[in-house]
Specification:
By secondary structure, this protein is an alpha+beta fold. The chain contains six helices and 14 strands. The protein has two domains: 156 residues, no CATH class; 83 residues, no CATH class. The two termini are 40 Å apart. About 3% of the residues have low confidence.
Length: 316
């Protein structure tokens, strides 16, 4: 964590769980993962239906040169290689095409290329292109793939991927740098720094093996604790009073104070913090009796004032 103050990571398994949950919904599977269209191409009428038979899965690796060369957007336009791209797999896509009195019914695997985009503090996963080889396809097939199938696949992936939450953590009173995003190993990693530490670097960072993790540097923990202490504890006031006695007399006392200063520091135990507190305080005692001073009542009131628990905020 020496190169960044906040590190968030998700592996392929974690991301696959999200797409699997979306695919498991019967209503979403019907609306997102299937489609149909009727039309004509050069006066040849056609009808096409398609459906995805398994949840999309992530391959957090850069696309190969062959995958980039076969990647097309809506309309069939090619896509130039981009940084921070990875592959999304649709292992079973069923397509049924009817045209000129003939029907082709097939099931094929396809791939999509996606990118991780960072805009300011916001992060998103976006589909970029579908990998498909149309070199041996007929003009009608190329038209159907480029103008019907690819737009529909990109649309379904866009809606599916928009449901994947990428945490963008915020801390009150603390300013973080824009995120640095990187695909490394089988992880999608996002790094932030405290503004005073400059742009984060992922060089040499050791990642844990958890499917999802959020790591905070001691400096960020300290800054977050300092802010919460200043906001919620500094200047807080307290008071405590009571009385002792009976039979026509009373010995009364009252105390008042405030937290003048407080500082909290981290310890080697990530679940424990060390606090130093300075207090301002005052105390008074009075005696009311019709028959003189009762020493026992005075003694008890004095003991209450000097009792450490009277001044211990944890005992209030």
């Amino acid at each position: 964590m020496s190169n960044c103050d906040l590190l968030i990571g998700m592996n392929e398994t974690r991301l696959d769980l999200v797409t699997a949950q979306v695919f498991a919904s019967p209503s979403l599977r019907k609306t997102l993962f299937s489609g149909s269209q009727n039309g004509s191409y050069t006066e040849i009428p056609f009808s096409m239906t398609w459906s995805v038979n398994a949840a999309p899965t992530f391959s957090l690796r850069p696309p190969t040169a062959d995958e980039w060369s076969g990647a097309i957007k809506s309309g069939g336009s090619p896509v130039a290689p981009q940084a921070q791209a990875f592959v999304l797999n649709l292992s079973s896509l069923s397509i049924k095409l009817t045209a000129s009195g003939q029907t082709v019914d097939t099931t094929v695997p396809i791939k999509a290329i996606c990118v991780v985009a960072a805009r300011g503090a916001a992060l998103s996963i976006e589909p970029l292109a579908v990998v498909v080889n149309t070199s041996q396809s007929s003009p009608l097939d190329r038209y159907m793939i480029s103008n019907v199938l690819v737009p529909d696949i990109l649309n379904l992936l866009s809606q599916t991927l928009s449901g994947i939450p990428i945490p963008s953590l915020s801390f009150g009173g603390i300013s973080l740098t824009p995120p640095v995003v990187q695909i490394t190993g089988s992880y999608l990693v996002v790094a932030f720094n405290l503004v005073q530490d400059g742009t984060p670097s992922l060089a040499g960072v050791q990642l844990p093996s958890d499917p999802f993790f959020v790591l905070l540097s001691p400096a960020l923990v300290q800054s977050a604790v300092d802010y919460q202490v200043r906001t919620n504890l500094q200047g807080q006031t307290f008071n405590k009073s009571g009385n002792e006695g009976g039979g026509g007399f009373s010995a009364e006392y009252s105390t008042a104070g405030s937290i003048a200063g407080i500082s909290v520091s981290t310890t080697p135990n990530p679940l424990a913090l060390r606090a130093n507190v300075s207090l301002t305080m005052s105390a008074s005692a009075g005696i009311n009796t019709p028959a003189g001073v009762v020493i026992d009542g005075i003694k008890k009131a004095g003991e209450a004032i000097i009792n450490p628990d009277t001044w211990n905020p944890t005992k209030w």
